[in-house]
């Protein structure tokens, strides 16, 4: 199958500004509900900006265009972050922001494919995204599609056996069109991921399984962009992973320095304060 390229990623808006816009939209949605996985959204915003405004090939007017790169949100609880970038990319209309989490909204608090344009899978049951991505990448390869499949997963999912079955099958099927993105924020429901299971050297582990692997600072946009470029350009005859070390709540200092948990509580009066702090750091 040959498909034309529809790259809408090029724009004069800098990636830093895109990431800032993603953080702002996520905070605005959090304010609507008085809650949300805001620590994760602020932490992963740079990775999402580089994904949607540097790496991915897609058509915002036609989210189901057959030639698109697929972006799978394995971590359904990060939906607030994906909605923010889907709005920024023009796939979701911005005027739906205020419906976040409400009955009949297209933006439920956990990501669901049947509700939201641009949400490729229903990923809230953790540990399944990479397996689905393997299947999609295999199918696209069989159709001779040039599209990539990106799977965004969390460090908590690295402790699930289903992830490692998918890791092996990706190698077995030589899926050089599969790029796994790991948001390594060193946090999961019960505390630090590095304290939950003996993880060892994550980078060496993925390499030992046969993946092309990189580990970079996920809040350094230049490093993030370079890692995407390297992953796509590599001639490695198998799948690629980029492990992004990220800081939860990045960009809002009084939240960054708060004792971090899986669910960062933001008091009613703190949403406006968080937006004001973010405003001070707006890129030119
Ligand atoms: C299979 C499964 N088990 C448990 C949960 C409950 N759960 C929701 S989020 C979460 C934390 C997982 O770790 P991670 O995604 O790294 O958390 P975060 O970085 O968002 O704190 C858990 C255990 C789930 N959604 N699915
Ligand atoms: Mg985590």
From TrEMBL:
<feature type="transmembrane region" description="Helical">
    <location>
        <begin position="112"/>
        <end position="138"/>
    </location>
</feature>
<keyword id="KW-0472">Membrane</keyword>
<keyword id="KW-0786">Thiamine pyrophosphate</keyword>
<comment type="similarity">
    <text>Belongs to the transketolase family.</text>
</comment>
<dbReference type="InterPro" id="IPR005474">
    <property type="entry name" value="Transketolase_N"/>
</dbReference>
<keyword id="KW-1133">Transmembrane helix</keyword>
<feature type="domain" description="Transketolase N-terminal">
    <location>
        <begin position="32"/>
        <end position="272"/>
    </location>
</feature>
<protein>
    <submittedName>
        <fullName>Transketolase</fullName>
    </submittedName>
</protein>
<dbReference type="InterPro" id="IPR029061">
    <property type="entry name" value="THDP-binding"/>
</dbReference>
<dbReference type="Pfam" id="PF00456">
    <property type="entry name" value="Transketolase_N"/>
</dbReference>
<feature type="transmembrane region" description="Helical">
    <location>
        <begin position="71"/>
        <end position="92"/>
    </location>
</feature>
<keyword id="KW-0812">Transmembrane</keyword>
């Amino acid at each position: 199958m040959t498909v034309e390229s529809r790259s809408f990623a090029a724009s004069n808006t800098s990636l830093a500004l895109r990431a800032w816009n993603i953080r702002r939209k996520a905070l605005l949605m959090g304010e609507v509900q008085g809650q949300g996985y805001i620590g994760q959204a602020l932490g992963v915003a740079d990775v999402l900006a580089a994904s949607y405004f540097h790496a991915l090939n897609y058509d915002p007017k036609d989210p189901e265009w057959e030639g698109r790169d697929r972006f799978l949100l394995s971590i359904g609880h990060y939906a607030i972050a994906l909605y923010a970038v889907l709005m920024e990319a023009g796939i979701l209309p911005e005027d739906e922001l205020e419906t976040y989490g409400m009955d009949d909204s297209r933006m439920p608090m956990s990501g669901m494919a049947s509700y939201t344009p641009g949400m490729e899978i229903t990923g809230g049951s953790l540990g399944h995204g990479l397996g689905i991505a393997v299947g999609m990448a295999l199918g696209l390869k069989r159709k001779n599609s040039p599209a990539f499949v990106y799977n965004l997963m969390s460090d908590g999912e690295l402790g699930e056996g289903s992830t490692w079955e998918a890791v092996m099958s990706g190698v077995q099927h030589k899926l050089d069109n599969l790029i796994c993105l790991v948001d390594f924020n060193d946090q999961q429901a019960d505390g630090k991921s590095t304290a939950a299971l003996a993880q060892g050297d994550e980078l060496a582990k993925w390499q030992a399984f046969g993946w092309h692997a990189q580990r970079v600072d996920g809040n350094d946009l230049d490093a993030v962009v370079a890692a995407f470029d390297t992953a796509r350009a590599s001639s490695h005859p198998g799948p690629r992973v980029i492990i992004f070390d990220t800081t939860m709540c990045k960009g809002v200092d009084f939240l960054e320095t708060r004792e971090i948990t899986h669910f960062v509580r933001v008091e009613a009066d703190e949403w406006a304060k968080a937006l004001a702090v973010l405003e001070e750091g707006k890129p030119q």
